[in-house]
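(Protein data)
===
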Amino acid sequence: MHQKLIDSLNAQLGQIFEGARELPGQKELQQQVRTVVQSTFSRLDLVTRDEFDAQSAVLARTRELVEQLEKRLAELEQGASADSSAAGSSEQAGGNDKPAE
């Protein structure tokens, strides 16, 4: 990907000089610009559009799964607290069933 971009920029730079006569140092200047651009892009953490789209799709699917799991966890927690409330109520009711002395 970086190479395509560098080649494109180099071609655009070449078009700038295309109409003009050959200037002294023109080729060297183009090579220096190419080297600087290559160096700059190598330090950047760039990805292609395809890679970005693929990771976006993975992220969207992961978010969807997390939301489903959060919903399921909330349902389970709600069911567990309802079960413990029911168990607490029956223990209290059972404790009052002792015969009085």
